[in-house]
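FIELD: query
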Amino acid sequence: MPDITSRARRHLPRSRVLIASWCLGLALILSISAEAREPWYPAEVNVWDPPFNSERQRVDREYRALDHAAEPWRVCMLIPHLKDAYWLTVNFALVDEARRLGVAVAVFTAGGYEYLDRQREQIGECLAQEPDGILLGAVSLDGLNDLIETVVDRGIPVIDLINGVSSPRISARVGVDFWDMGQAAGAYLNKLQEQRATPIRAAWFPGPDGAGWVEASDAGFRDAVSGRPIEIITSMNGDTGRAAQTALVKTALEQYPGQIDYLVGTAVTAEAAVSVVRKRQLKDRVGLLADYYSPGVHRAIRRGEVIAAPSDLPGLQTRIALDTMVRILEGREFSPHVAAKVVLIDREKLSTWDPSAALPPRGFRPVFNVDWQ
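FIELD: result
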């Protein structure tokens, strides 16, 4: 059993409202690998004690999921986008876990972190379909709080998934504190600096301005390098689309020619920087680090093009979130604040690490609903 710190206060009925739905096809669903369907638990996790504390006080626990849901609950998941493999991993894990538990899910994607208004609209679209619960990967730390209050007042639990919201009305939170991710990247940069024994100048690309996970990652990274012979020569925010990050990397290199030792940023930043650095023949001059993981980063570490990256295991966290939602809906005991343990991956670690909780299966394409009727 997971660490038990709270008990659900309500048992919500399953909605029977029929709605129009869409599906990418049974063949795609069946293409999910047999390996991914093997039991993913027990899993080592961090449980915040007390829940939601800002001092990152947590204890190590072993998480064990339910074998099956008691009812075919209907759960909406709202996420920022499906433009990179991080959220594809979330999408895959949701679909796979929903089928394992026997619940229905529908996925709403805002299209990017700049589309707060769209995600607000999608919460309304989800509510119109009378879900039993909502998993929320928010595009904004504060911009959805009024709607979260409206949802919870209607008796629908909301779980804060991965990105972070500041609302005190959430039913649970499943997500690594991205302070840990930024701190892990910064600590690795410290190790690199110690090996060269000379100061480092880094360009830092934390992600889209205003997102909760970006603020946390930025704080963790800066804390790790504070007081060390490491200078953040420039810091640039931007959407985690490939084009946006490519433009930021090019701008940094053009504004600070010959002055940047390392480019550090999101997984998309690192992926984009690989080709930019290669084309500009800077591979032996500029090193690359990411503050989260992706298939592109995975391949680049294997090839020696990216040095290292931490993973918050988004697939594992998504599975835990859906299991937690079922526990809430069925009045079972659950942990209000839980997260996967951050894993730092470099080329040495890569040879022994199982990436299945961090990356989607090869060839996976977005699936927007499972048994949603």
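FIELD: remark
The domain at 178-311 is CATH 3.40.50.2300 (Rossmann fold).
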